[in-house]
Amino acid sequence: MHQYTLAELSRLLHSKAINSVELTQHYLNRIKQYNTRLNCLITITEEEAMVQAKKADACIQQGKSMPLTGIPIIHKDIFCTQGIKTTCASKMLDNFIAPYDATVVSKLNIAGMVLLGKANMDEFAMGSSNENSFYGQVKNPWDETRVPGGSSGGSAAAVAARLTPSATGTDTGGSIRQPAALSGITGLKPTYGRVSRYGMIAYASSLDQGGPLATTAEDCAYLLQTMAGFDPYDSTSVEREVPDYLATLNNPLKGLRIGLVKEYFSEGLSAAMREAIYAVAKTLEKEGATLVDISLKRTALSMPAYYVIAPAECSSNLSRFDGVRYGYRCENPHDLNDLYARSRQEGFGEEVKRRILIGTYVLSAGYYDAYYLKAQQCRRLIHDDFQDAFKSVDVILSPTSPTTAFKLGEKTKDPISMYLSDQYTLAVNLAGLPGLSMPAGFIDNLPVGAQLIGNHFTEARLLNIAHRYQQLTNWHKQMPALAE
Amino acid sequence: MSVSPEDVRTVARLAQLAIAPEAVEDLQGKMNNILCLVEEMNRFDTKEVLPMAHSFELCQRLREDEITQEDVSLSAMKLAPCSEANLYLVPWVMPASDDKTRGE
């Protein structure tokens, strides 16, 4: 049953060939069997899942269901879930039970989805390997000595291992796309403002965006259809109609102009990765697309600008964790400052503290103009480069990450080498664009991800291209041995 | 630009992080590596470039001044590590001579 896609499961549920209770029980059994090995989930919500599954079956019986009714899902543990622990993979929130649902959670609840549990992740979404979790590292189901990517590593690994047909993630610099690539699944980071951030614990507010992870583009389209839309509770949510993402999935690709960015294929990228991405381009070209060489000449600015802006926003957002109103509090503080400083020192992990320190430094008196203002100016240059590019192409095709999944512990000592894993994804967040990663082959038996980048609010086009590509290839159908 | 051990201690104080003295050197090295990466920005002239805080030029949305959400202060208060009579309890700000840890 776990080898079906979300779309197939929806059809099976609605034709009453299967019911949600048996489907949910099947996935819960798989989670029990494999979660101790992979560590994808922080919390398993078995009781809640069975209640939701019974309710979903009743809805289907009564003809009151929606396409996602009865389908299991796992939420990244960054989304607040009322009455269920929401930890952000941090000791700081180990005891935090959210008093309300995130808008994404409540929309998917209303659609009748069944919550299997909360996914492991890099603490406060800071990381690219899922090794920065208070609850331990997540393992890649393709090779358990390797990382699944991050920060939505638990979500990606769970989908790849077929412990769930769908998951939510968040993406601040590549945190949906990079783990999707390293785990061999499909993940979509929507345009900034397309999906509500209400109830999504903030890391870098001008960059964070929630999105779906699943095995296929079609499944991501189903999920985005429900997740997207204006939310009055999120002041950065965009008031704009949500298109029918499913209606355009099969549109022909004739006339599509695909940009290949010369800076993304420069030295440093392995020949095997370059070939895999060019093979995607050739497949799409055969479908009627035109390939265009382009340049994003300020690409080199992405990483420096990101590592000023994201830590700056992080230092501000995470100042709320002070040991007073909720979360971790240190033992026996001797005064108020000691309470703040020791609660934060003991409650946050190393990478989070490093980013808070960098953020505090770049925002401090005397350094603001040299770092933060400069980074915001660079951000505009990056944005302008993309807008220039989109005058001559419709989408950009690139590797999602420069390498396949790397070994656990390989990059933990050197933060900069870890940051390079996101070198093709960061700019997309700085410019607020949508980006999708889809399976595009294998190198040494490890999945390769290809990234499609579109202009603002072109999610339908990205899903359409990925869906057409998945009609022509079988990469997305490959499964790790434990799912076969 | 690079940070000194004293800079690390100052920033840690501003960030309310009780960094252990023996961790300062390692943090200094890692912060300097990140700042070195960030220096790459200076290769580009941005004198005439308008800073961009957001990917869209968003303006703050206004709404009617009316209650839109129920009061959740009581349920939020239940999450506090230490509270009494709907008040968050913290240690004394000004230490008292005989009872410095009231509220704990």
Structure, described:
The complex is a heterodimer of chains A (484) and B (104). Chain A has a domain at 6-255 and 435-483: Amidase signature (AS) domain (Amidase signature (AS) enzymes, Alpha-Beta Complex). Chain A has an 8-stranded mixed beta sheet, sandwiched between helices. In chain A, α9 (302-317) crosses α11 (350-363) and α9 packs across α12 (368-389). In chain A, β7 (257-261), α8 and β8 form a beta-alpha-beta unit. With 484 residues, chain A is of the alpha/beta class. Chain A is built from 15 helices and 11 strands. In chain A, 38% of the residues lie in helices and 13% in strands. Chain B is mainly alpha-helical and 104 residues long. Among the domains of chain B are: 5-43; 72-104, no CATH class. Chain B has 3 helices and 2 strands. Chain B has helices spanning 5-14, 24-38, 73-77, and strands at residues 83-84, 87-88. Chain B has a two-stranded antiparallel sheet. In chain B, β1 and β2 form a beta hairpin. Chain B is flat and about 55 Å long. Chains A and B meet through α9, α10, α11, α12 and α13 of A and α1 and α2 of B.
Q: How is this fold's topology laid out?
A:
The complex is a heterodimer of chains A (484) and B (104).
Chain A: H1 6-14, H2 20-38, E1 41-44, H3 46-61, E2 72-76, H4 103-110, E3 114-119, H5 153-160, E4 166-170, H6 177-183, E5 186-189, E6 210-214, H7 217-227, E7 257-261, H8 271-286, E8 290-294, H9 302-317, H10 336-347, H11 350-363, H12 368-389, E9 395-399, H13 415-419, H14 426-430, E10 435-443, E11 446-454, H15 459-472
Parallel strand pairs in A: 2-3, 7-8, 7-9
Antiparallel strand pairs in A: 1-3, 4-6, 5-6, 5-10, 9-11, 10-11
Helix pairs in contact in A: 2-3, 7-15, 9-11, 9-12
Chain B: H1 5-14, H2 24-38, H3 73-77, E1 83-84, E2 87-88
Antiparallel strand pairs in B: 1-2
